[in-house]
Amino acid sequence: MPNVEEKRQQVLSRGGSDAGEQVTLDIEGAGKLTLMYVTDPEGNIIELQHWARPE
Question: How much is the pTM?
């Protein structure tokens, strides 16, 4: 997904919760990975992630 924070806000606005903090990792040869976890209103864990290709 292109915008992890935007999707997080959508989940929270529908009754979800944060399940951790946003993390960004540089993966050599693969790019930059941004991810975070949220839960839906029923408590299911959802991983949100975005890969940015290396420049």
Answer: 0.83
Distance CA 54, CA 37 (A): 24
Nearest to 19 by CA among 40, 43, 39, 48: 39
CA-CA-CA-CA torsion sign (15, 46, 17, 51): negative
21-55 pLDDT tens trace: 999 999 998 999 999 999 999 999 999 999 998 77
Phi, psi of 5, deg, nearest 5:
-65, -40
Domains of the chain, CATH where assigned? 4-52 (3.10.180.10)
Residue 41 CB: number of other CB atoms within 10 A? 10
